[in-house]
Amino acid sequence: MSPEKDFHNEFMKSASFFLDAAEDAVESGQTRLAIHLFCAAFEVSEKEGLTPAPRIIEGMRKAWDLACQRGDRSTAETIFGELTPYNSPEQAEQGMLQLQRLAVNQLEEMGLSRSDFEGMAQAVSQEMMNYGGEELMDTLRNVLRRMGDKSDTESGMQKIEKKETSSEHHKQASEKREPAFNYTTLAGFDSTLARMREYGFLSAGDVIYRQFVEQAAAMHGLSGPALMEHFIFYGPSREDVALFAHATAGEIGWPVLSMLVDLDPQGNGSIKLSGPFKRNLFGPPDFTEITTPCVLLIENIDYLQEMFSNEQRAVVMGNKHGHSQSGRSMQAEVLGYLRALLYRSGVFLIATAGESDTLHEPLLSLIGPHQEIEVALPTAEERKDLLHWFANEHPSFTELDFEELSRLSSGISRNDLAVAARAAVESAYRKSLKTGWFHNVSFSEMLAQLTPLVDHDSPIYQELEDAAVAQFAIELEKGN
To answer: Alpha-carbon dihedral of residues 455, 458, 463, 468, nearest 10 degrees?
Structure first.
């Protein structure tokens, strides 16, 4: 190992080193350097997934105070995100107010008065609660006039008016309530549903079993399914797994906070949040006011683990900020948010992954006790159930041989089978429109949709090809 690498390891191993250096920087008036050193101490203490010592937390609070004194909103926002799991509700509220003050100061430097901003913020708040649309338009018009010339104002108002019209349509559409999505709406998951019976779930409307669960819960002085350990669902089809995870959340019936983790072909990750958390105009999302009990549903949690690994490799290669936001560790940021959620009473985790045993420290310790439940590829009977369910929704599909289709679709996921069936129905519909007379979905069309989904080296692929040729010959003969 090179001397440089030895020095790096020695340098990184102690958070106390950074704390002492930060205090020296404060005394010498180097506030910007002190902020970075306090943050470095915090990151080193979190490297192994351990809860930072009180002295480390106190150092981060000093960094927060220094960033606010400097008027550095971006850095203050970053530090606030790190401190979120360790803040009391009062500290969280005070921090958000301070971030808003810093943001207003920046807007004033751009030419907006405080009254302009307060009016716009009030109008936006009213609009989000479906009130005050006219006030929002008037406020935005005044802001545009102050900040741009006439052509800018007219262009901006046109966009605002289009947005207002779009929002009204969206509001009307959202008022139509979506039907409940739970186990009763699933098809082709019997084997996984059988496993969920072990935890007291109702298994797709089984009345007798439901009565048993209610009686057992009453005798034990409990209620509902057994949710003592979190669930991680995994399987070869991420779409099937995600569908079952969402149905499980619907079966529980609590509000759901969703976190979708995705990776692009280069391995760069993105995280999308949706659900009943407080969205701040400035600063990170506020999870302190989430109503509990609730479900935290993380899709592709193994991608999150891969994002952590990619960031660590980037640090080793010297590209420290390659997978960071706002100059801080992405891993520390995400773990901070998850701590803020999972350490709250009444938050139940449901996660999905491609395989079992893919999580490592510090994510594994943070999640705590959990059950890994496989959502395997559908059996022949499950595929047949899915085809029957699809036929109930699409009558033109009913005349096919479901037994044979189930056999020939071996190894295909539920999602892919449903997509293939949908494509076959749409093909028959287009053919009906083109010819002017009704066409049922043909067996050959369904075979054509299934063939690209099967491994070309598998025995079933050759059977699909032979069946397609034979069916084509039958249809030719009928045509003659």
So the answer is: 20
